[in-house]
């Protein structure tokens, strides 16, 4: 059967087949080149999100393994070692006619069973477990968990063991939680645990657990669980120097921008006098009414509108380059906020996010949160339309990319008079940084090493 173009359906399918096959080959190559994706394959059978893990535990096929996990969770770390030794001794003493090893096996098994039988007598009654942690942490930085134990019971609890959750594929313990020797009534104890995470995104860990140690130290009593700690892993902030941006008056005003600064514009209020304030700003009426010198504060209109455009998705760049570009975007945002310029909008591929708070730590947190939750995909996204749509509202634009995709959009905006700074992340360079006008090429290794970048 022949279509409009004169080619049969079979010929068109044959023409698309090599393209589709090469696309899958590129995706497989990207997986093999990415350390993050290979590390994720080690936990491919474990759901990444906590609700999915809880749902898996409630399934019938998972319940078949519950006795094994119950035995594992009932023993202390020393008890698990003794259990392994008991199994080895049991295998060595199978032939009871030629050896007396089975007697040693019986003694070890008796100790294990006796410790397990005493578990119900050693409960952590009245002990409440709470977890305190920072709401966000950078990639590779230490996340500290404070495990607070509040004892509201009537009897002291001895030898309390604290165990941390099983970390996801990107997590690694830097400091395991320890225990508490004694917890008296109405007493509060805090145990510290630290971990590092190598992947951005929302993290919801499983619960921390506490249990009292049974005599002989081979088993622990019934466990108490805390709530699962939640936090956001944001990208590492690249070390970016001061950005000297050129500005123009925006073609289309998207609202009134103002910044509090002393000047000769509209008065917005008064505040107590501080050494160094200009005497001409003293407010005599408030001084007379309160008896304390006050000065006027003003609002000065600000016309600078700066946005960051991040173009990373697609098959052209490896995950390491994309992550380096995201880290560079965080560094540029920090540099603009530190300078006082502020950020009006963040464009990631074809999605635009505008911020109500432009300066200060709230603005930086908002940018980091959006960068931290972005999920990398191999599908190409049309960022050109979004960049051109945002251009008339801006006085300056910083474009950060992991490939040459936004080249045409950058040329079009510059031809219309918008100052555009393009920072492109590459894999390697002979020199640390090469400059070509407003275009800067930066190797990913300098970003990962934390070197000072002055684009």
Could you explain the architecture of this structure?
The chain has helices spanning 9-33, 35-41, 50-57, 60-63, 66-74, 77-92, 101-117, 284-290, 319-339, 360-372, 383-390, 407-415, 444-448, and strands spanning 127-132, 136-138, 142-151, 157-163, 171-175, 179-183, 188-197, 201-204, 209-212, 224-225, 230-234, 258-260, 266-272, 294-301, 306-311, 345-348, 351-354, 396-401, 420-426, 434-436, 439-443. It has five domains: 9-33; 65-117; 127-233, Immunoglobulin-like (Sandwich), CATH 2.60.40; 260-300, no CATH class; 306-448, Rossmann fold (3-Layer(aba) Sandwich), CATH 3.40.50.410. 33% of the residues lie in helices and 25% in strands. Helix 9 links the parallel strand 15 (306-311) and strand 16 (345-348). Strands 17-16-15-18-19-21-20 form a seven-stranded mixed sheet, with helices on both faces. Strands 1-3-7-5 form a four-stranded antiparallel sheet, with no helix packed on it. The chain is of the alpha+beta class and 455 residues long. Mean pLDDT is 82; it is low at 1-17 and 255-264.
